[in-house]
Write a structure and sequence with these properties.
The complex is a heterodimer. Chain A is α+β, with helices and mostly antiparallel strands. Chain A folds into three domains: about 160 residues, Sandwich (Immunoglobulin-like), CATH 2.60.40.10; about 80 residues, Immunoglobulins (Immunoglobulin-like), CATH 2.60.40.10; about 30 residues, no CATH class. Chain A has five helices and 21 strands. In chain A, strands 1, 3, 5, 7, 9, 10 and 11 form a seven-stranded mixed beta sheet that branches. In chain A, strands 13, 16, 17, 19, 20 and 21 form a six-stranded mixed beta sheet that branches. In chain A, a hairpin with a 5-residue loop joins strand 19 and strand 20. In chain B, about 75% of the residues lie in helices and about 0% in strands. The chains are: A alpha+beta, B mainly alpha. Chains A and B meet through helix 3 of A and helix 3, helix 4 and helix 5 of B.
Chain lengths: ~375, ~170
């Protein structure tokens, strides 16, 4: 562990990124926003929005980042924000709805890998504009590491003002509650059915990597996007025609990704519990090496009755503690023990007489 | 109101901290160095970490994005953490049965701690895309067929039960 710690460099950035999320700038600012641990990004950040933004309708916001020198993992993160306060600054706080982000999610903070041979990186959001036809602010901040893995870098775009207009009453449009699909699996065709308002007919087209648009066959209000062979983005849009003004929708984006990893959760949980019991059992099976169950505070085996070594001077613990106590009816033995040649039986009968004779001899 | 992610961070730090303390004390036991209390500290810290583990697992499941286990890292995390918990339970039971803290016992305790640290490393890879443990399996999961897991589960229960009966006898 110490070796691993010493072999690793220290960076104030998070080279592995933080993951896409819906978050305020204060979350990014907790590390990258600290002036003591981050530098100003040398990158140039610009925000591109549609010319006309209708209240309650879809619009595209693109953030173009140029001149980034990211870390070895080449991750670049961008926040789409509505103010510089650091809190309550997500698009949702101003009434914007994120329909899809650059990765097919619905987040205002998105991370992308900066290609090595690219001069710029574009983050595109499809938003549904606020219902209030007033001026709204948008800005973006960029976060990335550095090639040497040292400081984190943070950059901020200028705040742009977007005029949101009330759409013409009979403008051909997509239904207010209709949401476009944003992600799909590789190898899977996607059929999209449009729900519209004030529309009599429409056509649809798609493009890949900003290339030439290809027309799609529309049947019964639906069209089908071809399956994607590789991970990437396919863009599509529709030309809506009605009695009122026509409208061409934004380029909606649909991200093709590898199918999500799946596992038989029953098998997984069963194996997890099986491993728990197996390892517990294997450890418990390793019995103590001395073969005696003994606790550090259990001194039961150390009482004299069980101690055959300490009591061996009495002829062995097993016998001395199992035999009844030996008693005799004669006088107590003198300190020197039995007289020479006497037996205990003789002492019981003639011992007192022997002691008396010794006493008499002593008096004379 | 605290998010599951924050609670997971708290409970995970509790688990890892206790297990690391336990692992350090087991290391001292193995080397036969340090104060007399090292064996007691090792086992009590292991027990503390073990008690905090369910909270870490539950908050981790709640904090994970999506529904269910949709990432090989999460699957490996589950398998490793349960193995570590099994080892830790075994070490504590073995001690309870009167085993001395010899090198074998200390070694098993340290393996349990190592597995928990490995699990924490996978968490770092999953949450932040970086970890000190560069060799963790990111796309591979060793998943047994259900019948194999069932046999292992029964085997483990039998071994545990037999050991408990032998101990009482």
């Amino acid at each position: 562990m110490v070796l691993l710690l010493l072999s690793s460099g220290i960076s104030t950035a998070n080279p592995g990124g933080e993951g896409d999320a819906l978050r305020s700038m204060e979350c990014g600012g907790s590390c990258h926003g600290d002036a003591g641990s981050s530098d100003i990004s040398p990158s140039t950040i610009s925000i591109i929005v549609d010319d006309e933004v209708w209240a309650g309708l879809f619009t595209t916001v693109s953030v173009v980042v140029e001149g980034v020198e990211p870390s070895s993992k080449r991750l670049v993160g961008v926040f789409l924000l509505t103010n510089e306060n650091g809190a309550k600054d997500t698009p949702a706080h101003e009434g914007w709805t994120i329909v899809s982000d650059a990765n097919g999610g619905t987040n205002n903070y998105v991370e992308l890998e900066y290609p090595r041979d690219a001069d710029s990186l574009t983050f595109t959001w499809i938003l549904r504009a606020p219902d209030a036809p007033i001026e709204h602010n948008l800005l973006a901040t960029v976060h990335h590491g550095s090639e040497d893995g040292g400081n984190a870098f943070q950059g901020q775009s200028e705040t742009i003002v977007i005029d949101v207009w009330t759409p013409p009453e009979n403008l051909a449009r997509l239904a207010a509650d209709w949401e476009p699909p944003a992600v799909r699996d590789i190898g899977e065709q996607t059929t999209i059915s449009l729900e519209t308002e004030d529309v009599t007919s429409f056509t649809a087209e798609y493009r890949i990597d900003g290339g030439e648009p290809v027309s799609l066959l529309v049947s019964d209000g639906s069209f089908t996007l071809p399956a994607a062979v590789n991970p990437g983005v396919v863009e599509w849009r529709a030309h809506l025609e009605g009695d009122g003004p026509d409208q061409t929708t934004v380029w909606f984006r649909i991200v093709a990704a590898e199918p999500a990893w799946e596992v038989d959760e029953t098998a997984l949980y069963l194996q997890a519990f099986a491993l728990l019991f197996l390892f517990a059992g294997l450890v418990v099976m390793q019995r103590p090496s001395n073969g005696v169950d003994m606790k550090s505070y259990d001194h039961t085996n150390q009482v004299p009755a069980m101690d055959t070594v300490a009591n061996s001077m009495y002829g062995g613990a097993a016998e001395i503690f199992t035999q009844p106590l030996q008693t005799h009816s004669g006088p107590p033995l003198p300190p020197s023990g039995l007289p020479a040649g006497w037996t205990m039986e003789q002492w019981q009968h003639y011992g007192q007489e022997h002691l008396d004779s010794i006493l008499r001899e002593g008096v004379q | 109101m605290i998010s599951a992610g924050t609670l997971h961070a708290i409970s995970t730090e509790l688990v890892v901290g206790m297990f690391v303390l336990s692992g350090f004390c087991f290391l001292l036991c193995m080397l036969d160095k340090g104060p007399e209390v090292k064996a007691n500290v090792a086992h009590w810290a292991l027990l503390g970490g073990l008690l905090a583990t369910p909270a870490a697992i539950i908050t981790g499941v709640l904090a994970a994005p999506g529904e269910g286990i949709e990432n090989p890292l999460l699957a490996n995390k589950l398998l490793l953490s349960m193995s570590a918990v099994g080892l830790a339970i075994g070490v504590l039971l073995r001690r309870r049965m009167g085993a001395e803290v010899d090198r074998l016992h200390s070694g098993m305790g340290m393996v349990s701690v190592g597995l928990i640290l490995f699990t924490a490393g996978i968490g770092g890879e999953f949450a932040r895309g970086e970890t000190l443990i560069f060799f963790i399996p990111k796309e591979t999961v060793f998943l047994f067929p259900i019948w194999v897991s069932a046999i292992i589960l029964i085997l483990g229960m039998v071994i545990l039960g037999k050991s408990a009966i032998q101990h009482r006898g």
